[in-house]
Amino acid sequence: MSQELPPMPTPRGRRPPPPKVPPVRVGDVRFEQSPLPFDQADGGQRHGYLAAYQADTNELLWRVRVYEIEYEPHLERDVQDVFFAAMSVSPDGHQIFIDNTHGLHFAVDIDGDHAVHARP
């Protein structure tokens, strides 16, 4: 008589990959989500940044943090990261609208000081 093996545990669900959010363009400037390199993040937040690039040369013009991620120290950081879910240009062409994977909505002024505003 053969002994039945206990059922194998079901693997825990893995976090899905971040959404693929294409860059948007205003004139000759391309805007895209831009994670900070590890050496620039200095152990802190790497995601939630919008960068502006000169479209023809890929030169980084500026980068701004759109939202802060508050990490819980007892959890793995990568499962707490928050990513862009959608990005578009405002109707007047002066802001980039960003929605993140936590359902929050932001507007980034692309002229002047690159201020970030929450939006409903």
- Strand adjacency order, main sheet: 1-2-3-4
**Overall mean pLDDT:** 87
Q: What fraction of the residues are assigned to beta strands by DSSP?
A: 25-35%
Percent of residues in helices comes to: under 10%
Number of strands: 8
What is the number of helical segments per DSSP (H or I, 4+ residues)?
1
CATH topology of the domain at 24-38 and 45-67 and 81-119: Thrombin, subunit H
CATH class of the domain at 24-38 and 45-67 and 81-119: Mainly Beta
* Assembly status: single chain
Order of helices and strands: EEHEEEEEE
CATH architecture of the domain at 24-38 and 45-67 and 81-119: Beta Barrel
**Overall 3D geometry?**
globular
Describe the structure.
- The chain has 120 residues and is mainly beta.
- Helices cover 3% and strands 34% of the residues.
- It has a 4-stranded antiparallel sheet, with no helix packed on it. Strands 5-6-7-8 form a 4-stranded antiparallel sheet, with no helix packed on it.
- A hairpin with a 4-residue loop joins strand 6 (95-100) and strand 7 (105-109).
Question: How are the SSEs ordered, and which strands pair?
Answer:
Blueprint lengths: L23 E3 L2 E5 L4 H4 L7 E6 L5 E6 L18 E6 L5 E6 L4 E5 L6 E4 L1
Antiparallel strand pairs: 1-2, 2-3, 3-4, 5-6, 6-7, 7-8
